[in-house]
Amino acid sequence: MDGGARLVTSIEAVESGLDGFGYIASRQIATAVFLAQRLNKPILVEGPAGVGKTELAKAAAQWLGLPLIRMQCYEGLDESKALYEWKYGKQLLYTQILKDKLAPMLGDSEGLEGALAKLHGVGDIFYSEQFLEPRPLLKALQQPHGAVLLVDEVDKADQEFEAFLLEVLSDFQVSIPELGTIVAPVPPLTILTSNNLRDLGDALKRRCLHLHIGFPEPKLEARILATRAPEAEEGLRRQLVAFVQALRGMELKKLPSVSETIDWARVLVLLHARELDSQIVRDTLNVLLKYEVDIAAVEPQLLAMVDKAKSDALTPNYGVPM
Amino acid sequence: MSDVLLDFVRAARGTGIRISPAESIDAVQAMNALGWADRAALRDGLGLVLAKTAEEKAKLAECFDLFFARSDMKRPEAPEAEAAPDAAPDAEAPSCAAGEPQGGGGSALGEMLRAGDLAELAARMERAAEQAGVRNISVFTQVNLYARRMLEQMGLRELDREIARGGPQAAQLRQGRDWLRGEARALVERNLALFARGETEKYREEMLRRARLSSLDRRDVERMRQLVRAMARRLAARYARPRKHARRGMLDARRTLRRNMPWGGIPFRTIWKTRKIEKPRLMVLCDVSGSVAAVSQFLLLFLWSLNEALSGLRAFAFSNRCIEVTEILNQLPIEQAGAEIMVQVGFGSSAYGASLEDFDRLAMRELNHQTTVLILGDARGNRTEARADLLRDIADRSKQVIWLNPEHPLAWGTGDSDMPRYRPYCKLATHCATLDQLERVIEDLLRASA
Known about the structure:
The complex is a heterodimer. Chain A has 15 helices and nine strands. Chain A is α/β, with parallel strands linked by helices. Chain A has a five-stranded parallel β-sheet, with helices on both faces. The longest helix of chain B has about 40 residues, at about 170-210. Chain B has 19 helices and eight strands. In chain B, helix 17 (about 390-395) links the parallel strand 6 (about 370-375) and strand 7. Chain B folds into four domains: about 1-65; about 70-210, no CATH class; about 245-275, no CATH class; about 280-450, Rossmann fold (3-Layer(aba) Sandwich), CATH 3.40.50.410. Chains A and B meet through helix 2, helix 5, helix 9 and strand 9 of A and helix 2, helix 3, helix 11 and helix 12 of B.
């Protein structure tokens, strides 16, 4: 491995490296990044919304010092938007110029045959890189020192597109019929994310390292909170984590994720809260819970939950059995 | 080293994780990158490479722990045995007396037991297990057989002879032999858990697919549901793809421009992004009277798991009257929905004529030439009026009528069965009593409209 990409030496290096850019990686995540670099394989990240799937790609790009190229998937995404497109306007202009220039050039040749021979002699650049408009995938392959390619929410794209991704992901090359095959000088570190909207094909999964990021354990979440919302005081952070962990044990339509915990911490800091009390929790519950039914389900138990969170915050593992 | 990994892959496959050869190659590479030293990292790494869903990851972790459990047996005991041969670590481990003059011609195994060389014993046992082919074990009755074979490989016979000869240490050796037996059995049982599970599961699955749906054991129902879901997922994946939503008449600008290059880019010929795709429209009529209820439940479960490959799926349930159950199925999870349907119409004695009249009233107008009507029932109307004329109307208005009958064709027309009177209007009337048959019918249906 040469080029600008930083050589990853160990899992610990990944952990501390990502840590340096504000991403607290669990052991599994660090292992995944390490293996992705070593085996040159894309990582498919699945998990609930807001656990830091996209964030991982951003942090990895910063840490490795590589450009982050992001492709957001949606229904109807096709090759011309993902891979490349010809610059039609310029191609049309080119044909116009060609017409003007060809007339005097071919004027003195004898007969059709001679003109054709001359025409073939002219280098044809109609389909050449000059008229190629690279889209995210091609751009990622063309980076001289590699890149971090983030294919976001791949489950939202059509299945046809998924099939098309296979070639790119297995060999890090694409074939453009008019030009030939373009191979990446340095394979990009590829991260695909999925929210499990639909089952991805086996073929795609097989080519990827499959990383499932779930809700973090309390200790990890506390560390994440310490990095992302350092303005909150230690005691408050512990209570927050204990409260959110308890929420996740409940039957809710949408469980609060790490991003919601961070938002909540920031909100509480803005409100100058030094510790949880039932009033402030009730007022800010809509930061954590996004459905009316969920809020209604939690509210009656709020008092008890806040008390419990306060006492749980004093235990080493936030009241969650080890 | 990679042999061990391949065995692990085999064991993992046994738990139901699908691992392709390409993935096992990846696993070897991952292992080389990670090394053997860090157990947790290796487990995480293999989980990343081999398991592709959260459930598979859990299964794989469990399998990993079981598979690599044996290395634990050696580790804590070996240094102790070297350091203080007198202090045997556990009560169950063989005790030994150091410096004892060797009883003439002691067996190699006896020697090891006397010396308390547990590391060597464990290593030998591994080797013997390898030679005896313990990994081919498939049913639990083979445990004793394999344990015995392993011990014989290790030289049990000589040990027996030595014990029979008596002597000062015979009692100790006997104790040691018993301990060895226990260890060997434990090792074989671990292998059974690892490698035989796949075989047994496969066999049971095969059996279930052919079992009659109406006479399932209660404990098999849950497995059956899983099986149905897996089948439906497979079918859905295969048939949902080619008929993804149509691209409503959008101009394909890219292809249009290229197509019109010869005319200097003036769009003489336009190309549209249109692909009209038809999903089969399906109306299902399920008999939920006592005789057919079980099969109906599985049919509904199957169809509801297939949702993405079908459009406009509507379900009706009947016994002595007919109601639409589409809403119930959409709102409740399938287990509860089944019970709810039963409460509303189930368990009566079936009256086909009355039910067809209800259907006529409920949905006849919505049938069109794209609709397939799927009827599941035994056509036993308890001598009520058959109203085959209504079925004729249904057949006329719809694309086709398919009748699934859980009874064997030989029984059609016997007793109160009205099957011969309905049959002329069905494009297909077929026997459907097992999951295999059910899958075949539905696959044919999807294929015909693909």
